[in-house]
Design a protein that fits this description.
heterodimer; A: alpha/beta; two-stranded antiparallel ribbon; 12 helices; 8 strands; 13% strand; B: 436 residues; mainly alpha
């Protein structure tokens, strides 16, 4: 719901009927402060507020937060789907905020790769063709498409299902196909929005291992958004978001996944602890 | 009673999915009503016009079967949910069939009323025998249309029930996304042989009509429709099978521009697409032949029957041509719009992969052009060979003033078709923008 448009609509209708804020408040049985709050911009929500971070190339970074924390909005801003009201977003030295609307498709094609929770594969194309389509759109020469797909599919363990349609394979295989499609075009950054959301634990682990492998062997840069702590333990760096702001960051040192998992939980506990009202703790 | 209420509620909520069914059924039933009226009047004037309603019945059976399967696919997941919740399959089948029959009944009433009104508007002015009893004509034509409608519904419902009963829950969940497969990759070669054989036979029969003596023509005229229908059907089976095989071989040529996407669009349900294209090709051919026959009847130099009869027949033929042309373009356009609506998610995915809005708009235009043009392809091939041959025959039969009239009328028909084509293309293109 666009709060600014709603507020403007209420204000216009009120003025058209010749009512003051107090009169409208009385009719609705609410305070005139509430009417004023609806009509002014002070009630607008900042989905992403004062966020600043860098992602080095070849790193696997995660943005973690609860529902409504602004992580998907942040991802949409980086993906050029939304435009920020102010600030800059630089990818490979280019400020994407300044890119004209008609050039954003070009930018997505050349620099970005996507992996979604719902796979978003084309059901009329086979697994092979879904990957080939991305290469065709990028303009890769037709002779290079087949070798690229075969090499990638072997690495991602989907070579046996290349001739099958998405509905004929498992969720994990579909998601690995989506990864192959994303990495095949050699993007500057792969954006993954809750990629393990629709997978069982085994398939989720397989996918996360795939992401880690892509970083290691293909020097892929991956920015993943999730609220799953287990998925977070596979990353190199985690940015904790809450209410549109980055509350904390956590870098992985040489520790193993289990140790990093424990560190993540401690961090979450710390962030939650910061949010407790001291008065409530003292007087529950 | 509960199931009847559930049927009505589901029918209301699935309006978009049923739109294609409603429009097709209503249009075709209206045309059937008109053709029944023509057949009844023709019977009174001692000439047979029963073939038209029969032809429409055959077309309608094929189209309604296609639309029933289309609706089953759209709602397959919903049916799977009902079964998972514990509804018995028999009751679910009856529920779905009840919905289809209810809507079919509504289409019957709407179609026959529209058809009779259109007939009254155009034909009562040139009534052949001054038939005053509207009720007699309406009642009789309604009865015949009802018989055809019942036949169509029984055949289609029977097939649908068989199909539905075979599908298990797991298959219902995937039914919407299921693509048709070709078990034998070389099947398309067999269809090529059938097409070439059928086409050669048809040309042979046409040559027989042109060059054989008058007493032998009857035999060739009566059977020429058989190789014609076979070659039309085989042509589309061959072409789509060939495209499917090409795609399966992962030929490098398809990985350019929009070819992969369009090829997948054409071949994902290639068997059904072949049948539908064949049916619409027959509609187009029938429309063309009605136009040419009608125009010939309206020529003053052409005197086969008395003037009034000839005028009436000529007008009837032209009207049938217009009706079939409208059916051709309307149903194809509606089908395209519904497919575009369902395809909007794929267009979003293309945008993520890197296609710009102008590129997607161009892709949509290509899809519309293919949709509207594909059924005409075989018809053009038939015209290319048959029109010059038949023109030779007509030049022998007709007076000098009507020499080469077949070329003239064919040209006029294509000009009119082009006007319809452009109108429908612009309308569909404009309406498709909301789905891009």
């Amino acid at each position: 719901m666009n709060q600014i448009k709603t507020g403007a609509f209420i204000s216009n209708r009120r003025k058209a009927k010749g009512l003051t804020q107090s009169q409208l408040a009385e009719k609705l049985g609410i305070t005139d402060k509430a009417v004023s709050k609806w009509e002014t911009e002070s009630n607008s929500i900042l989905a992403v507020n004062n966020v600043s971070f860098q992602i080095p190339q070849g790193r696997f970074v995660e943005i973690m937060g609860a529902s409504g924390s602004g992580k998907t909005t942040l991802l949409n801003l980086i993906a050029t789907i939304d435009k920020p009201t102010n600030g800059t977003i630089q990818i490979s030295g280019q400020n994407i905020v300044d890119i004209p609307e008609e050039d954003t498709a070009n930018f997505r094609r050349e620099h970005l790769g996507f992996v979604f929770q719902e796979y978003n594969l084309l059901e009329t194309l086979t697994i092979y063709e879904n990957i080939a389509l991305a290469l065709t759109i990028k303009g890769i020469s037709k002779e290079n498409i087949s070798p690229a797909i075969w090499n990638l599919s072997k690495r991602l363990d989907i070579s046996s299902v290349l001739d099958k349609f998405p509905y004929e394979v498992s969720g994990g295989q579909r998601q690995r196909c989506a990864c192959a499609r994303a990495i095949a075009v050699k993007p500057d950054i792969i954006l993954a929005d809750e990629p393990t959301g629709a997978l069982d634990s085994h398939a989720a682990k397989q996918l996360l291992n795939t992401f880690a492998m892509l970083c290691r062997e293909y020097n892929a840069t991956i920015l993943m958004v999730t609220h799953d702590v287990m998925a977070a333990s596979y990353c190199d760096r985690i940015l904790f978001m809450q209410d549109g702001e980055i509350k904390a960051t956590l870098n992985r040192s040489q520790e193993n996944k289990q140790a990093f998992f424990a560190d993540i939980l401690k961090k979450i506990e710390w962030i939650e602890g910061e949010n407790y009202d001291v008065f409530e703790v003292v007087n529950p | 009673m509960m199931y009847l209420k559930l049927s009505i509620r589901n029918a209301k909520r699935s309006f978009t999915n049923y739109l294609l069914y409603v429009v097709t059924m209503t249009l075709l039933l209206a045309v059937m009503e008109i053709s029944e009226c023509i057949a009844i009047i023709g019977q009174l004037a001692d000439f047979q016009a029963i073939s038209l309603p029969l032809l429409i019945t055959v077309i309608q059976v094929i189209l309604v079967e296609y639309i029933d399967t289309f609706m089953l696919k759209q709602r397959a997941k919903e049916f799977a949910s009902y079964l998972l919740l514990g509804m018995e399959k028999k009751k679910l089948t009856n529920l779905f069939l009840c919905e289809i029959l209810l809507i079919g009944l509504f289409c019957f009433l709407a179609g026959t009323t529209i058809g009779f009104a259109v007939y009254g508007l155009f034909f009562f002015r040139v009534a052949l025998h001054g038939i005053k009893f509207l009720g007699f004509l309406y009642g009789k034509s309604m009865f015949y249309t009802l018989c055809c409608f019942c036949f169509i519904e029984i055949v289609c419902v029977f097939h649908l029930k068989q199909r539905f009963n075979k599908l298990q829950i797991r298959e219902l969940i995937c039914e919407k996304n299921r693509n048709e497969n070709m078990k034998n990759k070389d099947n398309w070669k067999k269809w090529a042989v059938v097409f070439i054989t059928g086409f050669v036979c048809m040309i042979g029969f046409v040559c027989g009509i042109v060059f054989l003596p008058e007493n032998c023509i009857v035999y060739t005229v009566s059977v020429v429709a058989i190789p014609l229908i076979i070659s039309v059907f085989a042509f589309y089976k061959w072409i789509l099978g060939c495209l499917y095989a090409h795609r399966k071989m992962k030929s490098v040529n398809i990985y350019q521009k929009n070819r992969l996407y369009i090829m997948a669009y054409l071949t994902s349900n290639f068997k059904t697409t072949a049948i539908i294209n064949a049916v619409f090709c027959m509609c187009f051919l029938f429309s063309a032949s009605s136009f040419i026959t009608g125009m010939l009847m309206l020529q003053p130099e052409f005197q086969l029957f008395d003037k009034a009869s000839q005028q009436w027949m000529g007008t009837a033929q032209i009207s049938i041509c217009i009706v079939f042309t409208i059916i051709y373009f309307s149903i194809l356009s509606l089908q395209q719009l519904i497919e575009l609506r369902q395809d909007s998610k794929n267009k979003k995915i293309l945008r993520y992969i890197g296609k710009s809005s102008p590129q997607i708009a161009s892709l949509v235009k290509q899809q519309i052009i293919i949709k509207l043009t594909m059924p005409m392809t075989m018809a053009l091939l038939i015209f290319l060979f048959c029109v010059p041959l038949l023109n030779i025959k007509l030049n022998v039969i007709l007076p000098a003033a009507l020499h080469n009239v077949l070329f003239k009328f064919t040209g006029e028909f294509f000009l009119c078709t082009l006007c319809f084509y452009l109108c429908y293309f612009l309308i569909v293109n404009a309406m498709s923008k909301q789905y891009i």
